[in-house]
Each structure stands twice: as structure tokens, then as C-alpha cells.
Amino acid sequence: MRVITPPINLAENVICFSTTVDGGVSTGAYESLNLAHHVQDTNCDVSRNRQILNDYIKGIVPLAKPAVYMNQQHTTIVQDIDNSALNQNLAVDGVYTSKALQPLAVMTADCLPIVLSDGDKIAAIHAGWRGLVGNILGNAIANFSKASSISVWVGPAISCANFEVGDDTIALFGAHAKHVYPARSKNKKLVDLKMICRDELFKLGVTKVSLAEHCTYEDKCFFSHRRTIHSGLKNTGRNATFILKTT
């Protein structure tokens, strides 16, 4: 299995990484480490892939529990999983915990996988443009005691050069005009979601931010929804980014 890790640790007691397509059992459009049940891959293969992932985590932290996955629907809901179990029928796009040994997962195939920690709490956030506009970052950071103590890693996601959207969406990014660029297509613009995410975090008081350079659209070691659609295909798998407190 090949994983991508941030250049620095978010905290001494925190581990985080992003998966690539390598190391799983899925076939066809989902080859090979697809971690999502909702994309019409076989349940058996996805369950096996998640077990492979859990075993990988246990190889690093032997007492780690199975990872928690969200029912992501581009909401701005961030749920505390310390006080209640995550309801898989409830759509949420962020989870946080203060418990050690509990890995949190965020699945993506172009959107931003964002993991946060101050050493006491950890959080995992899924953010596309809807989440950024809807302030999911603010909703997450509100659950930490001090924004300036938080470190953030934004994992592999689509790059500005490949994220083209229409004028109706661009209108929502008025405050981030410096990260909007002309596109080749008429009535389209290119948007740098990673830089907008960074600016939003800075505005919220979080200054320790690391951005993965990998582009999920360009690098075929990642699943990419947009690349799949542009290739005339219907389905693809999902990468996942994980965060875990060891103590």
C-alpha cells in the first residue's frame, strides 16, 4: 500500500495520511483500494479494502480501533463522536474526537480532505466548494479551545488548473477573487480551492496550514471523479485521508 503523508506532524501524538489507489482488491473502475460503499463497487471488495486499511493502521498503532467513515453529502455539519455514535443514515461532512486510538476518515475523489489537530482533539473534514462557501471550516474550528493551537493538513485534491466551474458558482467566491482565474472554456473560470481553504483558515485564526501538492485529477495514483467524467465513464472509487491520536 502506498500512502501520502504531510511534511510535518500535526502534533507529536497524531498520525495522518492519505491513501492512493494501490493496495486493495477492487477491480475495474474501482481498482484497487476503493474505500467507498456508495459508488456501486461490490460491498465485499470495499469491506475487504477497509479491513486492509484497518490492518495497516494497526501495524502502526496496534491498539487502534476501526476507522470511522462519514455519510458525506456536501453538508456543513460537523459531529462530535465522543458523546454519541455516528449515525450512518445522517449526512455529515465533518467529525471530531478527543479520544485516542480512534481513526477518523474523510473520503474524496477531487474535493479537499482536511485534517486538524491541537494535540487534544482531532477532526476530519470533507470540503468541496459548497462546504467552503457554507463555512464548514468555521463549524469545525468552533469545537477546539483555541484556533491558534490548531495545525491543519489539506490532503491530495484537485488543482486549480483542473477545477473549472461556471459563473453561477464563481459568484459565490467574491471574497476570494484573487484565487479565480480565466479558463479556456467560455463562461467558465478556474478556482484554486486549496488556496481559498488556506485563506479561510487564516481568517479563522489557524496559521499552521500545510497543503499537499498532489493533484487528484492529474495524478492517476488517486481516484478522480472529474477525470472519470471527462473520460466518458460513470464511476470511480474514493481515496481516504485518515487522522489518529496515538495517546
TrEMBL record:
Alphabetic keyword roster: Hydrolase, Metal-binding, Transferase, Zinc
Pfam families: Cu-oxidase_4
InterPro entries membership: Cu_polyphenol_OxRdtase, Cu_polyphenol_OxRdtase_sf, Cytotoxic_necrot_fac-like_cat
Catalysed transformations (reactions): adenosine + phosphate = alpha-D-ribose 1-phosphate + adenine; adenosine + H2O + H(+) = inosine + NH4(+); S-methyl-5'-thioadenosine + phosphate = 5-(methylsulfanyl)-alpha-D-ribose 1-phosphate + adenine; inosine + phosphate = alpha-D-ribose 1-phosphate + hypoxanthine
SUPFAM superfamilies: CNF1/YfiH-like putative cysteine hydrolases
Highest taxon of source: Bacteria
GO molecular function per UniProt: copper ion binding; hydrolase activity; S-methyl-5-thioadenosine phosphorylase activity
Family: Belongs to the purine nucleoside phosphorylase YfiH/LACC1 family.
Name the UniProt record assigns to this protein: Purine nucleoside phosphorylase
Organism: Agaribacter marinus
